[in-house]
Design brief:
single chain, 4 strands, 85 residues, alpha+beta
């Protein structure tokens, strides 16, 4: 299992466009990928779950990745977050 934290930098937080792009990235992997913030957890492969986190700029997100391709998934998701959120 891999875990890392990320602080949202986008002034709109996790909104529709980057959430949709994030789901597409997460779906490339067999691993389970979850985002947790403010006591809520969401499956990164489900757009409505991600948006229900209501993560805003400055919020810390804990990303947990578990599965056979977790190493590659971590690198990809971390890069995506740095470039888009």
């Amino acid at each position: 299992m891999k875990e890392f934290t990320y602080i949202i930098k986008d002034n709109l937080g996790i909104h529709a466009r980057p959430a949709g792009m994030l789901v597409k990235e997460a779906e490339k992997f067999k691993s389970e990928i979850t985002f947790t913030t403010k006591g809520k957890t969401a499956d990164a492969k489900k757009i409505f779950a991600l948006m229900s986190l209501a993560a805003k700029q400055g919020d810390e997100i804990k990303v947990t990745i578990s599965g056979e391709d977790e190493e590659n998934a971590q690198q990809t998701i971390q890069t995506f977050l740095n470039n888009n959120l």
